[in-house]
Amino acid sequence: MIEINNLTKVYNRKRALDEVSLKLPQGQIIGLFGENGAGKTTLMKCILGFLRYEGEITLDGEPVTRKNIARISFATCEHSFFPGLTAEAHKEFYAGQFPAFSAKRFEGLMDFFELPRKKPIGSFSTGQKNQFEVILALCQGADYILMDEPFAGNDIFNREDFYKVLLGILEPHETVLLSTHLIEEVSGFIGRAVLIRNGRIVGDVMVDELEEQGRTLMEYIKTTYHYRPDRVSKALNELTGEEG
Q1: Which of 233, 213, 150, 153 is nearest to 186 (CA)?
Q2: CATH domain 2-240 topology
Q3: How far apart, in whole angstroms, are the C-alpha atoms of residue 140 and residue 147?
Q4: What mean pLDDT value characterizes the chain?
Q5: Backbone angles phi, psi at 147, to 5 degrees
Q6: β-pairing, 29-33 with 54-59?
């Protein structure tokens, strides 16, 4: 389990994360939701040790270090591959670095996305680059797979098919933490939703609990964020000079 206790990250005197506490057990698919700048990417980068922070993050009770970092993988829209290398070269590199690397899963996902194996990754389209980033994260052999807006540049059909494939290939011990703005699209795919706003966790719920209550994930998020349904009409009235 990844345990986060009182995690605080400050940028230029502003708290990007403010005493965040969270538990991420193995075997869950978790959606991480929040507005731009809410702290989603910062949270993931702190888990990975990319940023200095205050507080504590442990993996099965131990600090995240070089000894256990291979148990966590990261798919980021900022990209972490070598643009001059081909997909085959990445496969060889990852197999040499990560003993649990799954060549079978790699080949299957490459076929699914129909990605070329002999072209430099830097020549891929934006959507293909993001697909390949996800493939590397899923094939590393990690127990915890962090995904930060991984589907940018992909059409809805590719995304929907990928959710189905992902559900079919994940092992019981694998956890996915997925940061995305595509809330309604992933609501039937995730099992848990974590809401973050202004650097604080403001909601944490199991999706099946919402279903038992007859509520949708979007309804829960709007209630938690105190969404005002009349804000659009008020703005239009002010812009057009019409009375509400």
Answers
A1: 150
A2: Rossmann fold (3.40.50)
A3: 13
A4: 91
A5: -125, 120
A6: unpaired
In this structure, is the dihedral angle defined by the CA atoms of residues 215, 217, 221 and 224, taken in order, positive or negative? positive
pTM: 0.89
DSSP string, 68-83: TGGGEEEEETT--S-T
Q: With the CA atoms of 100, 134, 2 and 195 taken in that order, what torsion angle do they form, in degrees rounded to the nearest 10?
A: -170
**Residue that is written with structure tokens 């643009």 in the block:** 83
What are the structure tokens assigned to 13, written together?
């005197």
Residue at 163: amino acid letter: Y
Domain positions in the chain: 2-240
Dihedral angle computed from the Cα positions of residues 90, 96, 100 and 104, in that order, rounded to the nearest 10 degrees: 50
Which residue in 32, 16, 35 sits closest to 24, CA to CA?
A: 32
Which residue blocks in 114-216 are alpha helix, DSSP H? 126-139, 156-169, 183-186, 207-212
Q: What's the pLDDT tens digit per position in 191-209?
A: 999 999 999 999 999 999 9
Q: Which two tokens stand for residue 200?
A: 């604080």
- Based on C-alpha coordinates, what's the Rg of the chain? 19
Judge contact between 90 and 105, C-beta under 8 A. Answer: no
Structure tokens of 196? Answer: 């973050």
| Length in residues, the chain | 244
DSSP, res 121: G
Q: Which helix (H) or strand (E) holds 143?
A: none
